[in-house]
TrEMBL record:
Catalytic activity: pyridoxamine 5'-phosphate + O2 + H2O = pyridoxal 5'-phosphate + H2O2 + NH4(+); pyridoxine 5'-phosphate + O2 = pyridoxal 5'-phosphate + H2O2
Residues at which FMN binds: R49, I50, V51, L52, L53, K54, Y64, T65, K71, Q93, Q128, S129, W172, R182
Domain Pyridoxine 5'-phosphate oxidase dimerisation C-terminal: 159-201
Named cofactor requirement(s): FMN
Subunit and interaction comment: Homodimer.
Positions annotated to bind substrate: K54, Y111, R115, S119, R178, L179, H180
Free-text remark on how the cofactor is bound: Binds 1 FMN per subunit.
Family: Belongs to the pyridoxamine 5'-phosphate oxidase family.
GO function terms (MF aspect): FMN binding; pyridoxamine phosphate oxidase activity
Official protein name in the record: Pyridoxine/pyridoxamine 5'-phosphate oxidase
Domain Pyridoxamine 5'-phosphate oxidase N-terminal per the UniProt entry, residue ranges: 23-145
Alphabetically ordered keywords of this record: Flavoprotein, FMN, Oxidoreductase, Pyridoxine biosynthesis
Annotated organism of origin: Limimaricola soesokkakensis
EC number: 1.4.3.5
Length: 201
């Protein structure tokens, strides 16, 4: 197999992902941590939306959402998800597939507290993915909770994180004449080491 050098070098795919994300943060003009998160509903129909990747841990990618949202219900029903992130400025992308578990403890509490107060109130007020009567009704609920929750709104029980632990991570970089560079790291279970293959463009 070709030696992995330059931007693909490294023995841990999550370290490589973290390095690419840090580089994107210096070049991408808006939301370099925006990922397209894919889930599947109870009928097997795929669903995708943009969420913000908030951290890359030693063995997981972490994002946050309302646990009563469509994405959360779909994740909780089958425990699997995938995402892609594309950085136009770097002409690179990462694709990830894996198993998902909740993060609803002290780490989620700390992240919620780090958000602007207005965003915390909004998280309390929004029945995410469910029908609402009007924008005015939503704003009225925000105003009610703004007065009720005090200066330091706690994290609601229905809001928290998810940790996506990867079974596959693919790194892609644009190449001349559509001869792109692609490397896929994969493992059959979370307890196995990753193997890496170079893929055709």
């Amino acid at each position: 197999m070709d030696p992995r050098v330059g931007i693909f070098a490294g023995d841990d795919p999550l370290d490589i992902a973290r390095r690419w994300l840090e580089e994107a943060g210096r070049h991408e003009p808006s939301d370099p941590n925006a990922i397209a998160l894919a889930t599947v509903d109870s009928e097997g129909l795929p669903d995708v939306r943009i969420v913000l990747l908030k951290s890359i841990e030693s063995d997981a990618f972490v994002f946050y959402t309302n646990y009563e949202s469509a994405k959360a219900r779909q994740i909780d029903s089958n425990g699997r998800a995938a995402f892609a992130v594309h950085w136009k400025s770097l002409r690179r992308q990462i694709r990830v597939r894996g198993l998902v578990e909740r993060e609803d403890g002290p780490i989620a509490d700390a992240y919620f507290r780090s958000r602007p107060r207005e965003s915390r109130v909004g998280a309390w007020a929004s029945p995410q993915s469910r029908a609402i009567a009007s924008r005015a009704a939503l704003e009225a609920e925000v105003a009610r909770l703004d007065a009720e929750l005090g200066e330091d709104p706690p994290r609601p029980a229905f809001w928290g994180g998810y940790r996506l632990r990867p079974l596959e991570i693919e790194f892609w970089a644009d190449g001349a004449h559509r001869l792109h560079d692609r490397y896929k790291w994969s493992r059959p279970t979370l307890n196995h080491p990753f193997e890496v293959l170079r893929l055709g463009p």
